[in-house]
Amino acid sequence: MFLIPCPHCGPRNQAEFVYERVEEAVAHPDASPQETIQALYTRANGRDFSWELWRHAYGCRGWMRLRRHRTTHEIAEVHAIGAGA
Amino acid sequence: MMRYSALGLLKGGLDGHKSWTRAWRAPEPKARYDVIVIGGGGHGLATAYYLANVHGLRNVAVLEKGWIGGGNTGRNTTIVRSNYRLPQMQNLLELSLKLWEGLSQELNYNLMFSQRGALFLGHSDSDMTRLAERGDSLRCNGIDADLLDRDAVARLVPLLDMSQTARYPIHGGLIQKRGGTARHDAVAWGYARAADALGVDIIQNCEVTGIDIEGGKAVGVRTNRGAIGADRIGICVAGNSSLVAAMTGLRLPIESHMLQAFVSEPVKPMIDTVIMSQSIHCYISQSDKGEIVLGGDPDLYPSYSQRGIPMRIEEVAGQAIGLVPALSRLRMLRCWSGVTDMSFDGAPIIGATPVDGLYLNGGWCYGGFKATPGSGWLYAHTLAKGEPHPVNAPFALDRFARGALIDEAASGPLPQSR
């Protein structure tokens, strides 16, 4: 397990958080059908760092984007998203 | 191939077990094969065996970066069953279960396949409705399923907590009596030995580092032991499918997540069926050595670490003790984790890729072991004929773009919602 530095609450146990999806999987409303399929149903799924969206579901319930390593679980960057970010 | 038998074992005992020969060769890679299977797990080895045995293709290689059966084949909870809800999944897994039923004899290798029954518990009226629906769906498709009432479940598994204060009250269950367990390592070894005897080259410590493409067609692989040419190449590396596919620039509908399993110290026989649940994700069985084998949910976020999170250990242990309180005094021996290919509908992918000559077998989520023989059978057909068998046609890679998902759990198009 790992600590996630919530931008609102500080470092908290990973058990409080829910992984939502990778940032590249966000489909934009003005994207073409092909781009939307690409975003929704394909992933790079590498072994190294990727940008992901997580929620502090059992804490402040805020959303955040974080850059996390898929093998070491190191979190290099965290940014709040949504209102007030 | 040296045939194994009870008499042979006796003879081996008399000469101090000095007469046994290698079960398969360790050949150098040839310059070219008709078919290369990337990945020497159960699925890849089964594919090679059926390519040679059913389709007569003997110039076949299985390339394995480590040792055969060292990935998810050796990390699962060894459960075999075909009691799925959707007909596409039933057809796939029933084909597999029928192959399991004669496999030890066919391979002349003891897979310790034990049809001890796979029981799903129902904990509420709605659970029982869903189990009845699943049972009806199975019986309509000619697959055995028996709905059990509370008393029948209590007779079958006397150690379940049937008290009024039970954490998980038991209303009944659905059993597939032909379900059970098999020895996972033996499946890889049995297929490897049988495939090798038919001329298949099983090449271990041979990591594929690139796929050569000429004029839009895959023509060979680069490995740490040199370049090898092939007419057809089959990726069969569930857990790492995305990484191998990325060698050709392909992006797959897969995320890699961790799945853990646990075993206890060995004890005398106490649970003689496989216990699962409609509502909680905990499965319990007892190995032939006596260990209690436990499994649960995946870790629900992408990772290749092959390390599980303690939170899941606590959750699975809590659920197991809630179902079978007698387990509370057991000491756990080991826990481990495997990398699973989580697909976006919970179903596997077996078929062609956009690259000519390159095929994919992956996306097995947390349910690949039970499908090993069927997966190999269907993938061999697909690789030999260049087109899918009717049973694996629905499991094509392009089904996501077409909206033809096979969503067994009806839980939506995200890998962690399985």
What does this protein structure show overall?
Chain A has 85 residues and is mainly beta. Chain A has one domain (3-80): Folate-binding superfamily (Folate-binding fold), CATH 3.30.2270. Chain A contains 1 helix and 6 strands, in the order βββαβββ. In chain A, strand 4 (49-55) and strand 5 (63-69) form a beta hairpin. The mean pLDDT of chain B is 96. Chain B has helices at 6-14, 42-53, 87-101, 103-107, 125-140, 150-156, 184-197, 241-245, 310-323, 372-385, 399-402, and strands at residues 32-38, 60-63, 79-80, 118-122, 146-149, 172-176, 180-181, 201-203, 208-214, 217-223, 226-235, 254-266, 274-277, 283-286, 291-302, 332-343, 349-352, 358-362. Chain B is an alpha/beta fold. Chain B has 2 domains: 27-82 and 85-108 and 184-253 and 345-417, FAD/NAD(P)-binding domain (3-Layer(bba) Sandwich), CATH 3.50.50; 118-177 and 255-343, D-Amino Acid Oxidase, Chain A, domain 2. In chain B, the strands form 4 sheets. In chain B, strands 1, 2, 8, 9, 10, 11, 17 and 18 form an 8-stranded mixed beta sheet that branches. Helices cover 28% and strands 26% of the residues of chain B. Chain B is globular. At the A-B interface, strand 3 and helix 1 of A face strand 12 and strand 15 of B.
